[in-house]
Amino acid sequence: MMDQIKTLREKTGAGVMDAKKALEEAKGEMDKAVELIRAKGLARAEEKSDREVASGKVYCYTHLGGVAASMVEVACETDFVASNPEFEALCKEIAMQIVSMNPKDVEELLAQPYIRDASKTIEQLVKELVGKTGENIRVIRFARFKLGTE
Q1: Domains by residue range for the chain, with CATH
Q2: Which of 61, 100, 126, 127 has the most CB atoms around it within 10 Å of its CB?
Q3: Can you give the pTM of this predicted structure?
Q4: Residue 121: which H helix or E strand, with range?
C-alpha cells in the first residue's frame, strides 16, 4: 500500500492522507484514485475562485529562437505560492500554450485543450494547482508576438 501511496502522490501531488483515502475508496485501482484526487482538487478550486489574488508573476516565453513570444500575467494569493517552482512551471506551460495555439482572449485560452495532454484543458491545469496549493490562481491577461504576418 505504501508504494501505491507514493506513486499516487508523485502523479497528483496529493498529500499522504488524501492519497491513502483515494486509494481506499478506489479499492486500490490507481486510475480511479487519480480521478478521485483530481475531482477533489477541482472542488477545492471552485471554493477558492472568489478569493482575492494580490500576488503572482508576469512570465515571458520565447519560442523558435525568438521568432515568437508570449507574456502572461498569472495571479495568486501570496508571494509564497508565486515563488513556488510548480507555479512557475504552470506559467511556462500557459505561455507556451499561448505561443502555440494563439487564443484570442483568456476565456478561449482556458477552454483550449492543453498542448501536452489533450485530455485536460488549460482551466483544469490551473485548477489542479489550486487544489495543490490551496490558493486561488487566475490567468489575468496575456500578449503574443510573432515575426512576419499571421
Answers
A1: 2-48 (1.10.8.10), 55-146 (3.30.479.20)
A2: 127
A3: 0.72
A4: strand 117-121
Q: Tell me the per-residue pLDDT of 3-57, one tens digit each, with 9 for 90 and over.
A: 888 888 777 767 777 888 888 888 988 888 888 877 776 556 566 666 677 799 9
Please compute the mean of the pLDDT values over residues 80-95 and round it to a whole number: 96
All three cell numbers of 87, joined, read 507555479
Q: Which residues pair with 69 in a beta bridge?
A: 62, 145
Most confidently modeled of 69-78, 124-133, 140-149? 69-78
Dihedral angle, C-alpha 36, 44, 89, 93, nearest 10 °:
80
Torsion of CA 76, 80, 85, 90, to 10 degrees: 0
Closest CA to 127 of 116, 119, 135: 135
pLDDT at 91: 98
Q: What is the DSSP string of 130-145?
A: HHHH-S-EEEEEEEEE
Measured distance CA(96)–CA(91) in Å, rounded = 9
- Cell numbers found for residue 99: 505561443
- Rounded distance between C-alpha atoms, residue 34 and residue 117, angstroms: 15
Distance (Å, whole) CA 72 – CA 138? 11
